[in-house]
Amino acid sequence: MTASLHTRSLPYIADGAAALRALGGEPWSMWLDSGHDGCGGGRYAVLVARPVATLVTAGGVTTIRRGGRTERRQGDPLAHLAAVLEALGPHPLHPELPFTGGAVGYFAYDLGRRLMGVPGPEPAVPEMAVGVYDSALVTDHYAGETVAVGRRLDPEWLAAVERRLDGDAAPEPLHAVGAMQRAPDEAGYAAAFQRVQGYLHAGDCYQVNLARRFSVGYRGDPQAAYLALRGASPAPFGAWLRLPGCDVLSLSPERFLRLEGDGRVVTEPIKGTRPRQADAVADAAAREALLASRKDRAENVMIVDLLRNDLGKGCVTGSVGVPSLCRAERFARVHHLVSTVTGQLPPGRGATDLLRDCLPGGSITGAPKRRAMEIIAELEPGARGVYCGAIGYLGLDGRMDTNIAIRTAVCAGGTMTYWAGGGVVADSTCGAELAETRDKAAAFLDLAAGG
């Protein structure tokens, strides 16, 4: 039976500081952020807290907590999530709001690796951490409105949100502690780069996304770090998650999978990067150079082909298409080449099926996907964890929207960790690829230097 939805207007949550103030740092509170206020950005932002169930997967075991009970289950975590969502019953499609309740959280790169049977190191954080919510706060930045929506609106929580919005509490500033650690360092990256080149020239693979890990100690509140990073490098698919044992801060420019109410699927892979320039003429020249780059276009097209294959696993035969190929888009710190791949799910298949088919995203693995992931596990300095996984929502109405968790920091145990990488192909140069990791990590490195 489909649940009826209730709505209630709240004071407009206009900016990032207000969004985090509204959540109050509660455990399992999350903000799916469109990077809007003063930054351009998207239309909607979603805030949730106080889940009715949580699912955390670590070491192949999913711990499900709901209604005061705890269960531990082996097997496919996405199947367990689908069962929890199904038990809550469907929500009707809202004509205006994108999310009215459902699952919000992250699906780590290592969850996709485990589902694909690719061996690798154990991550330091869970492979999946998801809260299930029967209501949400949705802000429409175009209309300048915030509304609470769901099958059950918790009056105590909404009263707490309104009290917080009337206050002026701010998170404790975050300060870096100690020296920045880079793994690998430049010499180590050069050695890994040469190993990748060997695999490429041997015909073992066509592209490998090779990444570096940056980490630094910190003190203070990661909420302050998120606001600082957001101010320096706003993104259309940002997210802030407060989870047991860690905070996740994502400034992702890249959509992974969007599933609409009619079963239409959209993915928008990014491949090809140039840093933004302060001078307008130089910035336009950088954009044109990116558009003219045969190497960057080839990288993008390889990943488009990979994603067409991933969508083709579960979409209606003949429905997968590429309506946009290699367009240049501007972001706060970089220009990117972005493509759009679409498909149509048949009746009976839903969001968790689509995630299972496509995790992890092809734009951050390489091609062919499995071999690229094996090389990544061999050469990178540990498990990726949240980095290059996906963050977003799976609605009780069947819709889904997720990012590729790049430009993403994880704060846990007094250490903030950030990864940056890029696609290596046969005609890549080590110096250019190393510079790309620095360009992509620039906002994080600036934050650490300022602390």
How is the secondary structure organized here?
Blueprint: E1 6-10, H1 16-23, E2 30-33, E3 44-48, E4 53-58, E5 61-66, E6 69-73, H2 77-88, E7 102-107, H3 109-116, E8 128-133, E9 135-140, E10 145-150, H4 155-166, E11 175-183, H5 186-201, E12 207-219, H6 222-232, E13 237-243, E14 246-252, E15 255-259, E16 264-267, E17 270-275, H7 280-292, H8 294-312, E18 321-330, E19 334-344, H9 351-358, E20 366-367, H10 369-379, E21 390-395, E22 400-404, E23 408-412, E24 415-424, H11 430-440, H12 442-450
Antiparallel strand pairs: 1-10, 2-3, 2-13, 3-9, 4-5, 4-8, 5-6, 7-8, 7-21, 9-10, 11-12, 12-20, 12-24, 13-14, 14-23, 15-16, 15-22, 16-19, 17-19, 18-19, 21-22, 23-24
Helix pairs in contact: 1-4, 2-9
Task: Give a structural overview.
With about 450 residues, the protein is an alpha+beta fold. It has one domain: Anthranilate synthase, CATH 3.60.120. About 30% of the residues lie in helices and about 35% in strands. It is built from twelve helices and 24 strands. It has helices at about 15-25, 75-90, 110-115, 155-165, 185-200, 220-230, 280-290, 295-310, 350-360, 370-380, 430-440, 440-450; strands at about 5-10, 30-35, 45-50, 55-60, 60-65, 70-75, 100-105, 130-135, 135-140, 145-150, 175-185, 205-220, 235-245, 245-250, 255-260, 265, 270-275, 320-330, 335-345, 365, 390-395, 400-405, 410, 415-425. Strands 1, 2, 3, 9, 10, 11, 12, 13, 14, 20, 23 and 24 form a twelve-stranded antiparallel β-sheet that branches. Helix 1 (about 15-25) crosses helix 4 (about 155-165). The longest helix has 19 residues, at about 295-310. It is globular and about 60 Å long.
